[in-house]
Amino acid sequence: MELTFYIAAAVAILSTVMVITRYNMIHALLYLVVSFLAIAVVFFTLGAPFMAALEIIIYAGAIVVLIIFVIMMLNLNAESVKTEEEWLKPRIWIGPAILSAVLLAELVYIFTAAEFQQTAVVAVDARLVGIALFGPYMLGVQLCGMLLMAGIVGAYHLGRQNKKVIHRFLEKEAAQ
Amino acid sequence: MNGVSMEAGLLLAAILFILGLFGVLIRRNIIFMLISVEIMLNAAGLAFIVAGMRWAQPDGQIMFIFILTMAAAEVSVGLALILQLYHQLKTLDSDAASRMRG
Q1: Do A58 and B79 count as a contact with CB atoms less than 8 A apart?
Q2: For residue A48, how far is the Cα from the chain centroid?
Q3: Can you give the pTM of this predicted structure?
Q4: ipTM score for this prediction
């Protein structure tokens, strides 16, 4: 089980690196799916099988498909890959790379300095999660429902296109 | 079942979070910035799952469900904003939207 965790972790890190360095958006999204699947395996080894299923269904399923639909609507072509290549020069990314490396070094130092007890993994299945979710966390579930409702209304309102409603004869007259 | 140390899980979460942060910083394309924010949210959820594993309690998984809900709402609103921005400016460059022109 431990070896599975480390292999899945390595796959997740590698594919995430590929996501943020690709020029082509679809390639990046495919690597993102691989990354999410690897993290789902990590969840499974950490004793959260229900979360592994949710990770695949919602992240790798719904969210990535949503982004792919938007990319298809944008009609991107080979030129956009070239502009991506121009935007991602070493001069641009060297500064953020140093800053993030410093932050990562700090985090690694904090985690290695602290002492953690090694405990056996006990699988917490969907039944226990459901009992806790609809017991003490009831308010959180209702707030999540409101958040999703606000998300739907917001996405509909923002996504609406204000088309000019002009009859085609009138448009021809206006052009003349 | 063999135990996975909490340290390794938290380190994985930290590395993924930093990678997402790096993606937000270096990319000019708005869609890539949105994807990197998703990576960061996912890393935060992973940290919660690791904490839930340490004490074998469902609370960490419940926080992950909340993060998942928030990510879904965020990505739908964000993609609607991106579509609107692309129709207005005809580009995905985030620098093009730096002025509000109110």
Answers
A1: no
A2: 19
A3: 0.88
A4: 0.91
